[in-house]
Amino acid sequence: MKIARIETFTNTLIGFVRVTTDSGEQGWGQVSTYNADITSDVLHRQVAPHALGTDPIELAETIEVIGEKECKFPGTYLRRATGGLDTAIWDLRGKIEGKPVTSLIGGSPGPLRVYGSSMRRDITPEAEADRLCRLRDEQGFSAFKWRVGAECGRDVDKWPGRTEAIVPRVSKALGDGIGKLVDGNSGFTPGRAIEVGRMLEQNDISHFEEPCPYWEHEWTKNVTDALSIDVTGGEQDCEISAWKSIIGMRAVDVVQPDILYLGGMCRTLQVAKMAADAGLPCTPHSANHGLVTLCSMHLLRAIPNAGKYLEYSIEGPYSQQWADTLFVERPYDVVDGQVRVTDAPGWGVEINPSFMEHSTYAISQSE
Ligand SMILES: [Mg+2]
């Protein structure tokens, strides 16, 4: 069996990928979100030429070759594009075998606990506490993440005093028995991060994500070593060499690869295995309700070092709206604080034809 066609259906936010074999079998994947139109161009220019004519079963090797052939172009766009190929081929393999992807990688369908993930900093502590408590009460969410500091904020808060106000306010409102996580989004230098971390320790927060600029592994390690709570990170890191460094020095307590930023399931399984060998849990980054959350669900149901929960965006535009418009059936409904991986083959979703009609189409195919 050989890959004969690679097609993309894209807009600026989302780009789906359809792979077709010479025997007519098909699978669907997605390049990573945002600037998906540029990423789809990269897929056709720098990924597809190395993948057409290869056997889907040799995907891991094909992905290695793509990195080597495009060695002058390391970095996020190549990996985001490769993620589209990879996820389409996992879907194809699932459909051929009649199994969900999770079963292909040693897992099984079933439920997964989620944490409700806030993406907002323009929200007051009071309003954040109110909406998280509502999700706890109405849909049974048992864990939440909210934001402190400011993205790459150089120790300057979104507004003065917000971090000091929102941490105790939301933690107290949520009460006992709820998982409490915060995200610094690269906002702090180590000194300030440790100061914030001490406050988190005193307020029942168990997870401090990306306290320092993510590329400063030594800074992050200083914070990890200083605090008793879990320091976590890695969503942006898309090179295996960076992961070797992060895991090797134990810069974090929990690794958080993003399956589509990193280049797909093959490379994420590689990172998850490296983390497992080092005794570190893996809680993937999945900050929107495109395909990445579904891929993370299949991964978490399979790996031995799965973290405690799935990241589940609670923001309307990137969650409910996307889940409603991208797929024929919504794959992400939360019941009693859990989502469910079904036994449908591949990723178990069908892409909405109306999304495709309104997208930009491109094709690469074997001569
Ligand atoms: Mg994050």
TrEMBL record:
Keywords: Magnesium, Metal-binding. One of its GO terms (molecular function) is hydro-lyase activity. The keyword Transmembrane helix does not apply. InterPro entries: Enolase-like_C_sf, Enolase-like_N, Enolase_C-like, Mandelate_racemase_C, Mandelate_racemase_N_dom, RHMD-like. It comes from the Bacteria. Its cofactor is Mg(2+). The keyword Phosphoprotein does not apply. Coiled coil: none annotated. Residues 126-230 form the Mandelate racemase/muconate lactonizing enzyme C-terminal domain. One of its GO terms (biological process) is carbohydrate catabolic process. SMART domains: MR_MLE. It holds the Pfam family MR_MLE_N. This is L-alanine-DL-glutamate epimerase-like enolase superfamily enzyme. It comes from Silicimonas algicola. The lineage of its organism: Bacteria, Pseudomonadati, Pseudomonadota, Alphaproteobacteria, Rhodobacterales.
